[in-house]
Amino acid sequence: xxAVGMLAYERKQQILDLLxxxxxxxxxxxxxxxxxxxxxxxxxxxxxLEENKLIHRTxxxxxLVEGNSTEDPLIFREGQNSIRKQTIADLAVKHIQxxxxxFLDSSTTVxxxxxxxxxxxxxxVITNGIKTAMxxxxxSGLQLMCTGGILRENSKSLVGLSAKNFISHYNADxxxxxxxxxxxxxxxxxxxxxxxxxxxxxxxxxxxxVLLSDTSKMGSDFLCRLAPLSDFYxxxxxxxxxxxxxxxxxxxxxx
Length: 255
Description:
By secondary structure, this protein is an alpha/beta fold. It has helices at 8-21, 28-35, 39-51, 74-77, 82-92, 108-114, 130-136, 161-168, 193-204, 240-246; strands at 25-27, 55-58, 61-64, 101-104, 123-127, 142-146, 150-152, 157-159, 172-177, 181-183, 187-190, 206-212, 224-227, 234-236. It contains ten helices and 14 strands.
């Protein structure tokens, strides 16, 4: 019997989660039992995951591709917590004015904010996000620059020394970025070192850095310590009480 109400991206994400828990290997039979899905549905999902270079299909099962053990792909993250991300974008857009220069990272939360930039004029946007750049390329009234660099398949982001060096040549009025996890004690963190270096450069070359993250990431700490909350002008989540708590430690209320 098929699981009721589960969307395709949710099921595919659960397949990846199961592979991570099962030493990166699982059979179609195991996946059918765990996800209450038919063999045809699971095989179709595995085909899509293989086409996105996330798994290798084997006879009767699948193996997780090396390097995909810690981060969900962009195609799945776009569908996660979309209402929360829209709330965050609605709060973040208040910082933007005509004529600004803006850094945008490659995250899906920042992508939601990017969709609102067509209401402004004479702004410059520098991004390392492929999907963000593609979206903004259709907008009039802004100048778009893409960092260049090495493409990360999962996040559709450009990273590496070329991306970092490109950013270092520019100053921005404000930088918007997300993170893999954050906490009051340890600030924002990233799982990938290449993403860490790009975001550190965004922070260093902007007058204000604003962290956008939904509260599902709160309390999680990952490998690379991106920045303490005191490095950000503001932390914006979808919950006012969390924002108030976090922004006691940011630059928002400091002279």
